[in-house]
């Protein structure tokens, strides 16, 4: 993937907020999920940053991302009711707007509290100070209703860059992304074709020039080798991944060329098909 | 964890290089592992950035990290023999030094190729152009021998910030970190105590003020609630994590106070012990 052009593709930056992502507690599976979804919508993540629940770090990270002018910045985490949920305060400071209570967001929270109370999930629908805090949004924000949890998401625009603030709980984040954010990237899924080769007796270094040739020839495709270590013999996985109208055809072309090179080099290989779309 | 002071703690930034971390292929488990190790060595990751295999992104990310003056920058990935392994080129450009063939690194590569050849893992120990590329390091680097794979790591210092470039293959990265990088952070593991509560009928918003009180009282500890969604009732996990000489004692103190607040609020909870160290 040599010529990933930000000029022609919808560019996304992701900012993940949370100590738990930096102290070994959890892996950032939200980022992985977003990466796959954004790819299949025709966009790409140009950069992802993970910061702790420290306001100065959140502010500087958002400010830097805004300055790089991506089409979209997605933050995950830090929207909840606790003292260390400070993402919206960070966004407000970064883009120089006030934080103010949003009537629409407050209504969303009240509605969810009533629903959860009726379902017996919470003991009281009272709008405590902590819950009310979740309605304090950067001025000019559009609140995004949360159909899984309680905290509303946020959509705001600054200098043609959209900023979407989504919850950190995966189920809430995914629902909100698919509902409100995916359509901003594309109205429909793009066809994605991915084929993975496992190559069993050809070290990556020998394979490298062949991969490079193909990657230059098909710059709009991911053609990449992933060394998998040595298990008696060296094991390398080669990924060929493309999207768009002619992608199936082109992937077939790439595969034929790769197979022919590999045969010349005397490698054993087998395909793992992962077709999507 | 309100007062994570960068002034007193060993500060690390992690830069992960690889398209596969941004297009949904894999989760960044290297970052998770490093986070846990660095925490138990007494340091903290202040920021982590993930960039694709795009030279300009690698260069700007490293340059920005150097300007923030952490004690250590760790890069993972992009040291291999293929055309898109460009981390060292990125480091050289970012800190304004030349890339040059390092005799010591070349010897390391030759030694490993001979070993792997004798083990029958590779068909030829020949120093191909692709393999030779792995010995081109930023001028002034100390190469780090790779006892698992082939590509040497790199250690270089700029303005009192150490930059360690480690492979992306997890087994290689972990071995190299423990061998060369961990001792730069601390000569010994620090005692870490972590206790997790699962709280089953108290929503995070009600819990929030109690957690906040404790977090303020014990600023050097992680005391954080993690909402786990609604399963009939709301489920929240509270993590209490500390390190250092008196950590066991202090964690016990925190737990007693937390238990007493929870009882007053009528919550059901149970402990999950994760003691280490």
Of all protein chain pairs, which has the greatest interface, and how many residues does each chain bring to it? A-B, 82 and 82 residues
Strand count, sense and barrel status of the largest sheet of chain A are: 6 strands, mixed
Query: How would you name the oligomeric state of the polypeptide chains in this document?
Result: homodimer
Structural class of chain A: alpha/beta
The termini of chain A sit apart by 20 Å
What is the gyration radius of chain A calculated from CA atoms? 22 Å
Strand content of chain A: 25-35%
Q: What can be said about this structure in brief?
A:
The structure is a homodimer of 277-residue chains. Chain A has 277 residues and is α/β, with parallel strands linked by helices.
Annotation keywords:
homodimer; 277 residues; alpha/beta; 6-stranded mixed β-sheet; 4-stranded antiparallel β-sheet; 8 helices; 12 strands; 37% helix
What would you say this structure looks like, in words?
2 copies of one chain form a homodimer. The first copy, chain A, has 8 helices and 12 strands. Chain A is α/β, with parallel strands linked by helices. The radius of gyration of chain A is 22 Å and the shape is elongated. In chain A, 49% of the residues are buried. The interface between A and B is large, with 82 and 82 residues. Strand 2 (43-51) of chain A pairs antiparallel with strand 2 (43-51) of chain B.
């Amino acid at each position: 993937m040599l010529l990933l052009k930000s000029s022609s593709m919808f560019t996304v930056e992701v900012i993940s907020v949370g100590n738990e992502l930096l102290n070994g507690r959890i892996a950032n599976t939200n980022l992985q999920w977003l990466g796959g979804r954004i790819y299949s919508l025709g966009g790409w993540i140009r950069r992802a940053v993970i910061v702790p629940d420290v306001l100065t770090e959140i502010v500087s990270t958002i400010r830097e991302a805004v300055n790089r002018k991506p089409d979209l910045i997605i933050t995950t985490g830090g929207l909840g009711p606790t003292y260390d949920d400070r993402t919206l305060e960070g966004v407000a400071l970064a883009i120089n707007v006030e934080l103010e209570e949003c009537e629409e967001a407050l209504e969303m929270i009240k509605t969810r509290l009533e629903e959860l109370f009726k379902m017996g999930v919470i003991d009281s629908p009272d709008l405590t100070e902590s819950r009310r805090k979740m309605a304090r949004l950067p001025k000019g924000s559009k609140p995004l209703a949360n159909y899984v949890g309680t905290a509303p998401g946020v959509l705001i625009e600054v200098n043609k860059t959209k900023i979407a603030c989504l919850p950190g709980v995966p189920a809430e984040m995914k629902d909100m992304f698919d509902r409100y954010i995916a359509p901003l990237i594309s109205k429909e899924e793009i066809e994605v074709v991915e084929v993975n080769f496992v190559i069993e007796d050809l070290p990556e270094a020998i394979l490298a020039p062949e991969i490079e040739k193909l990657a230059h020839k098909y710059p709009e495709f991911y053609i990449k080798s992933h060394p998998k270590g040595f298990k008696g013999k060296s094991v390398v996985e080669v990924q060929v991944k493309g999207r768009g109208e002619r992608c199936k055809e082109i992937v077939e072309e790439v595969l034929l060329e790769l197979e022919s090179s590999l045969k010349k080099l005397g490698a054993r290989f087998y395909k793992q098909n992962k077709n999507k779309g």
